[in-house]
Amino acid sequence: LVSIGNICRSPIAEAVFRKLVTDEKVEHKWRTDSAAVSDWNVGRSPDSRALSCLRNHGIETAHKARQITKEDFQTFDYILCMDESNLRDLNRKSNQVKDCKAKIELLGTYDPQKQLIIEDPYYGNEKDFETVYEQCVRCCKAFLEKPH
């Protein structure tokens, strides 16, 4: 799960997905991680508002921001991102990887409410983080329900 800085949207999506697969008792079938297309926040914890939002829903995360690697494109089956800018960056990076096996998609393509883009809440408020959380829950549930 990828966003620009890996401190807001993607760690929320990662934590949501991890909780869903744990609740469904299928965590052994999934390797879940999140990363950034940029190197701006490498090593940092998620934004305090993201952590607070997750905590409000009973979810904890110890994620530290990292940048996506060539190995990610070779080992993950899916790389799901938050917006068109991420999608462009990831497609460009994947073209430089020899044996890219990852299917790169917008996480929002799975949203039953058809909200294709998960907007960056960084410059917003707590309500914007809650919107991201709700979108991630809808999209991750729908993604999990499809055959893989």
From TrEMBL:
Record-linked SUPFAM superfamilies: Phosphotyrosine protein phosphatases I
Superkingdom, taxonomy of origin: Eukaryota
GO cellular component, one term: cytoplasm
Keyword Cytoplasm appears in the UniProt entry: yes
Protein task: Acts on tyrosine phosphorylated proteins, low-MW aryl phosphates and natural and synthetic acyl phosphates.
Family, as annotated: Belongs to the low molecular weight phosphotyrosine protein phosphatase family.
Protein name: Low molecular weight phosphotyrosine protein phosphatase
Record organism: Ptilonorhynchus violaceus (Satin bowerbird)
Lineage of source species: Eukaryota, Metazoa, Chordata, Craniata, Vertebrata
